[in-house]
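pipeline: protein-struct stage 2 | run 1193 | YafY family transcriptional regulator
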Amino acid sequence: MSKADTMLSILWLLRSGRKLTAKQLADELEIHIRTVYRCMDSLCASGAPIIAESGPNGGYKLLGQFADAPLMFDESEQKALVQASLFAEAAGYPFSDELRRAVEKLKRYTNEKQLELLARHAQGLSVVSPPSDSRLAPLLQQLEEACVNGTTVAMQYDSAKDSPTNREFDPYAILHWKGSWYTVGYCRLRQSVRSFRVDRIAGLSAAEGRFARPQGFSAEQFLLESLMPGSLQAEQMSDVRLKAPERALNELLKHWLFGHALVERTGEDALFRIGASALQTYVPYFLLPYGKALTIIEPPSLIARMAEVSASLAEHYERMRAGASIRKDETT
């Protein structure tokens, strides 16, 4: 460790409230005892309120008010950091090793009471998610570094529709949405801003180009619009008024499209503004699971489309039922 890191580590250890000898500090940090003495001299010279007591029961300790300095984390902040790390790791956060080290460092410099409390908070929260793909971590790390440094990457991308293509790409951001990682940026092959699934990147390496992210650009908004074109930024928008029990509307608003498109909500009525083309494509399938709990007040075109989709589904399952009956007759 550098001297600055060692000094900070000593402060963290003393913040636990325990009185520690120079030997205990040296053993804990795996450094020479003379290094501890030198760091203590520097800390005292810089104004850190460290009290040194000599004798058989002596040691170093911090004055109480310093333990509550703003740069230190209180118990609720420690809990938030530990629990947030659970969400990040479950999402496949690309810097999970660094995150674990940070949490371990946090735990290392707490007293026994705080450590026990952190363990209970960690056990009291769980995140259920599919296993993350470990292959993505190095790709996400490289993309994130390129975003920060404004450096172009050479990317081999497999769209699953065509053969893999090689392209130079300026990544503006990486995003996690619905269990998958995406990157949004400027594709120099297509000469336009594009979004890509990270799990479909077959290869990634540094390229020579550099870029500046456009000011005011929203990667989140671009991704949502690219996944479902015409839903939020269409030239022609339509008002969609729905009536449903409050509980059903609350669930509907958890869907990203309806959450973003909400204009007005009063009890069991809600007004949304959605691209007209989306009403004929995505929206009916999002509304189907709510069944009879949902009443469409307007527009009539959405009501008609819902009827078409429902009739098509009914016909599909009728054919399925007829086929099942035929197979049953053939086996008897």
